[in-house]
Amino acid sequence: MSSELITVVIPTRDRPDFLELTLSSVVERQETIPKIIVSDNSTRDLPEIEVLRRKYGFSYVRQSGKLSMFDHHNACLRLPSTPWAILLHDDDELSPNIVRKLESLAKSSDAGAIVGGIEYIDENSARKGSWLPDREGNFKGEEIVLHLGLDYRVCPPGILWNVAACRELGGFPLAHGNPNERALLLRLALSYGVVLVPQMMGRYRVWANQTTNMSTPERAEYIVDMTIQGAQSMREIGMSRSTEDQLLDYEIWWIFRYATPLFSKHPFFVSRLCRKCEIATPPNGVWRARVRSEYPFLFWKPRRLATLFVVMAMTFVPRPIRRALNRATGLVVTK
To answer: Would the pTM count as exceeding 0.85?
Structure first.
């Protein structure tokens, strides 16, 4: 059985091995098969793609190979002819037999999006964890925007998009060259409403080469800059100042905490990154206060002298005292 309501659009770039896993989850693990469009922004023509086309029978759009992620995702929103679409990243998967459930919900809904749960998987597709919405039903307005916005686990591939609503709002907002999927979802929740379904919808791959990896200063700063720009776009949605401040505080400081392990090798970088987050967020946010309580020395003044003091302690203070510092700060290595 095929779906007339739902298209799965797969933006891909130079990852045919993962793309096959993605396609398999759409074709081989569904009772109802959606329309499938692969939008290929690879840097070169890959012979593996033609093999996959013969095997899975998807529609194929060859992009230039030069599109940014922002441009590519918005180009993908223009491709479906069905009223609903899933933008399935080429390293993610659909949950088994979810399309039939989503189709039954989509038939009777004019919401801007349908949001379900996700499983976290590794590069070998092994399950590492999961998340489900803690509510069920139709919701609309600022309260649900805040509820969704304060939970970073709300993300693709757990989102079925109302194509017309997305296009009317102008597609994905820009966030440092990337599509801001969360901002679009919150705009839809405010203007059109969302349907929350406590059922697994997609499988989100967590692996070393994903774009959200923060293992180096360059990657960490890129992700933080993207988050800051994306969070600041929340002020354009049309919510109260209190809600906007809460969203900025959460989005930016929640991400910054993933950069703090870099302190042991790049202390001045982390200190500078912390200052960048301070400038971008309201002064009395809950998450800012949480980070300050966990890593107080990052907020000491003068900043460079405080960082130098901690570095000296890490280097010259005897190991038992370093252990005490480590317990106090959460950052000082004890080796």
So the answer is: yes
